[in-house]
């Protein structure tokens, strides 16, 4: 399975010829709608706006996670997708794009199984109270995607298989975990590798103290291996776990 970080909490997972995307923020919408301080530090890669995913996971209804222009680019009549969403995100996107996409509303504990991926919604504690995280299983591996959330106890009880990789927010603003709490979240899960996200994209937060280096230090103190990816970097998950 290949994993690509798309910036913010956006991911692409590729397995057996199938493509799953999470919270794809692929354009520069926030700069255009909110102001230049939310301009991108990393330019748009137009190639990602031309992909046609088999599955799209949306964690919650905030613009950097449910970016309608990005979704409009990838959800077309060319290929129908399964669009899996927290409640508010589902209400926002359902039926908004051409094609016969299957819009699936998820709450913690709900599961959707495709021919390649098995997706389970887990709890997220965020300002969108209907937001969720996800557990994605494929190729015998388990990837936990935190969604935007504060730290809370008991997340490990919602993950039925041993977590191999955790993709976590760690920016410490907007009701999200800071580096210390994100490291604890990963330690609670007992993950083999943790990947920090929700940093490095917007100019407004370029000098924030919650950095991937700090996350790696906090994770190491708890015995958790952390791997920092660059935006648009792709890794093979098997190699990531062996390295």
List keywords for this structure.
single chain, 19% helix, 243 residues, alpha/beta, Metallo-beta-lactamase, Chain A, 7-stranded mixed sheet, 6-stranded mixed sheet
Shape label: globular
The first-level CATH class is given as: Alpha Beta
CATH fold description = Metallo-beta-lactamase, Chain A
The share of residues in helices is 10-25%
Query: SSE string, helix = H, strand = E?
Result: EEEHEHEHEEEEEEHEHEH
Distance, first to last CA: 15 Å
Structural class: alpha/beta
Total domains, how many?
A: 1
Based on CA atoms alone, the radius of gyration comes out at 16 Å
Mean pLDDT: 97
Question: What fraction of the residues are assigned to beta strands by DSSP?
Answer: 25-35%
Number of helices: 6
Given as residue ranges, the uncertain stretches (5+ residues, pLDDT < 50) are none
Can you describe what's shown?
The chain has 243 residues and is α/β, with parallel strands linked by helices. The protein has a single domain, classed as Metallo-beta-lactamase, Chain A (4-Layer Sandwich), CATH 3.60.15.10. It has six helices and 13 strands. The protein has a seven-stranded mixed β-sheet with strand order 6-5-4-3-2-1-13. Strands 7-8-9-10-11-12 form a six-stranded mixed β-sheet. Helix 1 links the parallel strand 3 and strand 4. Helix 4 crosses helix 5. The longest helix is centred in the last third of the chain and has 11 residues. The model has no long low-confidence stretch (mean pLDDT 97).
